[in-house]
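From the pipeline queue, job 12 of 40. The input is one protein chain; the requested action is below.

Action: predict structure.
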Amino acid sequence: MAEYRNLFVTLSAKMKTSELQSIKQRYNIVGNCEALNNAIDVALKVAPIDLSVLIIGESGVGKDILPRILHDNSPRRREKYFAINCGAIPEGTIDSELFGHVKGSFTGAIGDSPGYFGVANKGTLFLDEVGELPLATQARLLRVLENGEYIPVGATDVKKTDVRVVAATNVNIRKAISEGRFREDLYYRLNQVQIQMPPLRDRGEDIVLLFRLFAMQMAEKYRMDKVVLTDEAKLMLRRYKWPGNIRQLKSITEQLSVLSRERVITPDILMQFIPQDQESTQLATIHKEGEHSFENEREILYKILFELRGNVNDLRRDMSLLKKQLEESRSHAIAAKDDKHIAVPVAAEPIAPQQIFIQPQVKPIAEDAVAEEYVEPEKEPESLNLNYLSRQMLEKALERNGGNRKKAALELGISDRTLYRRLKQYGLDNK
């Protein structure tokens, strides 16, 4: 009996391996690490069962492959499949995009729209970057997941839909819940089954296999010699942290294929294409608690401080110029009094338009006039409060772009959604 049992286990393992290889070939998945195989295996097991799935993983690890596997191996495979990037849709229109709207419900609504939940009825909806959804939209999504009901924007009738939702995120959802940015009940409803996609730095030899694939694709597409790695260069690839994951590896492989004169890549050549700043390559892993990225806030603060320093320098230059003009005016007034006639002070050089102080007009001084002594005003202490500086930067960006929020967000280097959230936080959303 033990012999038959061992034979059965061996055959089952071979069948499992054969099925995984077939899936990898079908979806062009490269790699054999255990974590990747486990993610694909879980997707195949849950595909026939109509449960919501939450895919966790860093940006660039290939999370968009698993929803296709889930859909193509489910009873819904003959129905429609839609993939939506929630972070790319403006906050003001995301409800309309997802749940539809009726004609005249808002400016630009020239007709009825069923929305993705209406069009994808009986099919599968993949919500990428679900952690970026506004709280109001999260409440609507929770209702759809609970009972399949939703109300289009501007409508009064309740609609019904039968959609399987697969969500993905690269943020720490539990941290977002503690900060009040994500609903806890929605998290548990989406997280009926969780699949973890491993980062590239944890996939070992898969890094070299992916490099070979991308190098071969470049060679075939542009009819060039394929680049190959030495053993030392392979080791260097495996030790790198890959903050951009597969997307970054593909970009570096393409750069090497085009820019490198040598086709055999050594560590010295590879170092020219891999960033050497170790701090910038360190990613906060999403499964650890208490970690948060302040990259956007830090960038805004740097811009504010640089601009504040420039303003202080301008203030000092303008004050010096004004003081010099007043001293010249006083000397002319004294000379006019000594000569017993009215003297008009010599006009000072005009101040450049970009200077923030307006040149005061000096009136002719009478014979007995006495020039006032200029007292330099006390400098107000500079505020380094982050909320004040962020609000000041937002107001200045909006003013310089004529109130155009999209251009202001582009200048600040942040997304439209982040800008809208900041405006709402500081009470500027109605301006």
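Job complete. The chain has 16 helices and nine strands.
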